[in-house]
Amino acid sequence: MAKISVIVPVYNIKNYIGRCLKSIVEQSLQEIEIIVVNDGSKDESSCIVEDFAKVDRRITVVDKQNGGLSSARNAGLDVATGEYILHIDGDDWIEQGCLEALYQKAMMDDLDVVVSDYWKDYDNGSKIYITDMPKGQGDIIDGQMWLEYFFARKATQSVFNKLVKRGLYSNVRHPEHISMGEDLATIPRVLYKAQRIGKLNKAYYRYIQRVGSIVNSVSSENTDKTINSLLAAFNVLQEFFCRKPEIVEQLEKYRIAQVAIFIFTPQIKKNSVLMQQLQGEYINTNRTTDIRYSTGRVSFYSNILKKVPSSHILSLLQLINYALYMIYNKWK
């Protein structure tokens, strides 16, 4: 049995998949299986994948009709045999020593999950170090504690920087009806089942912020679709935790905080029926509930609205926010 099953979904990323697979096959940890799921690519991605598979017997190629990221990840889980699972998106890559460091940490502390930090890489060459679950390397927590960190925004729902024991995915799959927020709908359900979660205080994963990727394609044209997908992710979690009212309460606060991000995102269309409904809900809930927001900017706006809960004030804040956005992008 392989020590790690690395699952790589691929869809029309011919300019990236070669770098991704090269970073995996050259890892110092050799006892791995690499499951590449070709999700109906129409470019040369599949040819690049096949070339790698011809020279490395650890690579298994799964060809399927296009069904989206979650569908591809599930197809990989269905054939995975490794002790642990690691998801790597086909347009990203990992640094040398990543798999060995994660696996050694899992073995040393008998962990169900190993969480690591990661890099966000931008097209202009800049990069940001993202700290996930900022605990000491010797600290072990369980799924309940991880949820507390998550709600306190000290832990992320990102799937790609977490080495997960394969058994935790039993009866849990990535929701295929969700096009954005798949990680949000999946990782809390998976990690809640874990008894021992540890932290590796180093970043090996390079999360590429490319134009045209799913997370960077939100616009005024697809606002409702994007937000409905996000709300569907919360519905999945609320159904899973329905017998835990204290968790459902925290989920509702987290949902409002995520909605607030969209409300103050300049390129998001604000005049749809759905957005008008969510803006009213946000104002009312923010006024009566203590909510932890993700950024200082949104927290500042929300504090003003807590004191003056008015749709007119919200519109004014959105206008100011848009002006600052335009000035920043002009000067950047």
Task: Give an account of the 3D structure.
- This protein is α/β, with parallel strands linked by helices.
- It contains eleven helices and nine strands.
- It has helices at 17-25, 45-55, 69-79, 98-109, 143-151, 182-192, 223-240, 245-263, 273-288, 296-307, 311-331; strands at residues 4-10, 32-39, 59-64, 84-87, 93-94, 113-122, 127-130, 162-165, 197-209.
- Strands 1, 2, 3, 4, 5, 6, 7, 8 and 9 form a nine-stranded mixed beta sheet that branches.
- Residues 213-217 have low confidence and may be disordered.
Would you spell out the secondary-structure blueprint of this structure?
Blueprint: E1 4-10, H1 17-25, E2 32-39, H2 45-55, E3 59-64, H3 69-79, E4 84-87, E5 93-94, H4 98-109, E6 113-122, E7 127-130, H5 143-151, E8 162-165, H6 182-192, E9 197-209, H7 223-240, H8 245-263, H9 273-288, H10 296-307, H11 311-331
Parallel strand pairs: 1-2, 1-4, 2-3, 6-9
Antiparallel strand pairs: 4-8, 5-9, 6-7, 6-8
Helix pairs in contact: 1-2, 6-7, 7-8, 8-9, 9-10
Summarize the structure.
This protein is an alpha/beta fold and 332 residues long. It has 11 helices and 9 strands.
Descriptive keywords:
alpha/beta, single chain, 332 residues, nine-stranded mixed sheet, globular
| Poorly predicted runs of 5 or more residues | 213-217
Largest sheet: 9 strands, mixed
- The helical percent reads 40-55%
Beginning-to-end CA distance, first to last residue:
51 Å
Question: Strand fraction band?
Answer: 15-25%
- What number is the mean pLDDT? 93
